[in-house]
Amino acid sequence: MNRMFDGDRLLVATHNKGKLEEIAHLLEPFGVTVVGAAEMDLPEPEETEDTFVGNARIKAHAAAKATGLPALADDSGIEVDALNGAPGVYTADWAETGQGRDFVMAMTRTHDELEKVNAPYPRTARFCSTLVLAWPDGHDEVFEGKVEGQCVWPMRGMDGFGYDPMFQPDGYDQTFGEMDRWEKNKISHRARAISAFVKGCFG
Ligand code: IMP
């Protein structure tokens, strides 16, 4: 039996504006107002684990401990089959320049590595999202969502964030970068994880 979330304001332990906007939009129908980590002046903890769930736990528990409130964290990334699942848990790191993140550079690296191994088409991949809801007493609940698709090149579309312009979900002609937020939020890994969270924690 899961522990229920019974508040109407939910702290989301992320500094990523794209993620925060998606989570806020996905939780709107359930009457939940989302508050981001930046609004609460929370530091960004170092993600030292090598799994999505491990890093989501670090972020959720740090925020719950610092604020005394239940906190939700998402750890996510793209797994490319021909790259043995890379960048996976290191998806954000591939965008690190030393002076911020550059996702065009990260997508270019992903494409270059696929070319290097002469990966056949379709270049299958999936986006994964692991959500952890942590309480200040140390309890947590874990929810996961995935969406299957393929890497395309050149990148297409200006909507969304991160690797959206190079990911085309199965059954669609558009990349996530070409879809509007509503369309992406019907099928995305994060939408699926949020749906499991709502089923598990909203009674
Ligand atoms: P982390 O969860 O903070 O480690 O970062 C995950 C990284 O994966 C983000 O910085 C994005 O680059 C990428 N990512 C996760 N979800 C999405 C998505 O829905 N679209 C595009 N990129 C994503």
Features:
203 residues, alpha/beta, Maf protein, six-stranded mixed sheet, 6 strands, 30% helix, 22% strand, binds inosinic acid
Description of the molecule:
The structure is a single chain. Strand 1 (9-12), helix 1 and strand 2 form a beta-alpha-beta unit. Helix 1 (17-27) crosses helix 5 and helix 4 (181-187) packs across helix 5. This protein starts with 8 loop residues before the first strand and ends with a helix. It contains 5 helices and 6 strands; from the N terminus they run βαβαβαβββαα. The mean pLDDT is 96. The chain is an alpha/beta fold. Helices cover 30% and strands 22% of the residues. It has a 6-stranded mixed sheet with strand order 2-1-3-4-5-6. It has one domain: Maf protein (Alpha-Beta Complex). The chain has helices spanning 17-27, 52-67, 103-116, 181-187, 189-201; strands spanning 9-12, 33-36, 71-80, 123-134, 140-151, 167-169. The structure holds inosinic acid. Inosinic acid binds at residues 16, 47, 75-77, 91-92, 103, 127, 160-164, 176, 188, 190.
